[in-house]
Amino acid sequence: MTERPIILWFRNDLRLADNPALHFAKQRKTPLVPLYVWSPEEYGDWPPGAASRWWLHQALRSLRDDLRGCGSDLITRVGPSGKTILDLASQTNASAVFFNRCFQPALRERDEHVTRQLVDAGLEVQTYNGSLLFDVGDVRTGAGHPYKVFTPFWRACLAKPVPPQPLPKPRKLPEFPSFRAVASHEPDLLANMSWENKLADHWIPTESGAHANLREFTQHALAEYHTGRDLPAERKTSRLSPYLHFGQISPRQVWHAVSPHEHPPTPKSDETPAKSLYQYLAEIGWREFAYNLLHFFPETRNQPLRPEFADFPWERNAAALERWQRGMTGYPMVDAGMRELYATGWMHNRVRMIVASFLVKHLLIPWQDGAAWFWDTLVDADLASNTLGWQWTAGCGADAAPFFRIFNPITQGTKFDPTGGYVRRWCPELAELPEKWLHQPWEAPANVLGAAGVILGENYPDPIVDHPEARKRALDAYQTIKKQN
Questions:
Q1: Which of 248, 250, 247, 229 is nearest to 238 (CA)?
Q2: Cα 401 to chain center, whole Å?
Q3: What is the pLDDT of residue 269?
Q4: pTM score of the predicted model
Q5: Which residues are catalytic?
Q6: I need a surface site. Which of 147, 155, 257, 348 has the fewest CB within 10 A?
């Protein structure tokens, strides 16, 4: 074994199994120095929000424990990544730095700068794709252009060879004998945070927690995912999004766990399990699509992909925004979703579409304001997926829903929460209302409201807007940019 170690730079790949940088560094049979650097200023205008910092705090603790179980350890430091790594390389006499690539625009630029610093200092640098099934830029049209529509993008992905089998989890890692002599500085990730105890009731932010979620999903929900994925009152989704974002599980681990076949599924089968498998893998595909869009169109993290929406007559309304954030709009399906988010750091995907549509179309509040709130409160806050989702809803992005598609929160509620289990859980003041009135309590007769203990305007708000009027106002606003373009 040679004496000069390799620095293994962890980022959003906080796992031991199927970790390419770790796997190939281990093959060198030289001591490894695992490192995590907290440098939020390097994220540009989207540094990790409160929920992300809570998750990261737990994930780093878990990763350190896992590394120690393999005879290694984790050094954490705070500061500029380039200088921090160079200082550590000097202290440890490291010869190389291995890491898995980040794909957010600011972090990609940061990595290019750091790589130049390291190479100029005489260090070897090796990088890998540990976050996606297909590296960004590998899937393009026949003319070499990036896809802007999901279906042909995913069709092109499925035409490629099946993703390789995941790399094994190491049992033992080459030991760096001088860990005690190297200082570790813990980042204060939980500063000024008041809700971390709530999140701990709903999540186990560890690599083993990711695989427990995956097993639960494959055993009890995958076969019915095609129909069950739209029912927020039932646990019919995998809830793997935060684990994927922080890299505590990889997309190819998920792929091979749910689809252990040589060929990917097709949407042509009439059998529900086959449809469910195709639909679930397509959700992984949307994540791939989001990262490709952000790679080719980095400005979309703040600006609409469709330039005509730069002139959309959005309205700034701080009071309405706060009512939406706190789940006090008077529309039960919207309020239930926003309360679930604030209590758990997560929201069911169907409900994400409902609450996002309500913000940008019923209230005409800019999608960027909604994206910022999600960014701070979601444990799975991911710049690529967050950007794609909000621009899709606002009608201004790639493969977007047309702006005139305005979700009716009443009919969405009756369709996807027909018995009211979801609304009753998160809006308990409405729990005694009959199903007929649960999604539109303002229409309920006074005696029904009284029997249910509901006092509109007191213990549950009146609707913030009238749905037909809000819909007309949104369509009128859309006409203004249509005429201009």
A1: 229
A2: 20
A3: 59
A4: 0.96
A5: 283, 286, 314, 349, 367, 390
A6: 155
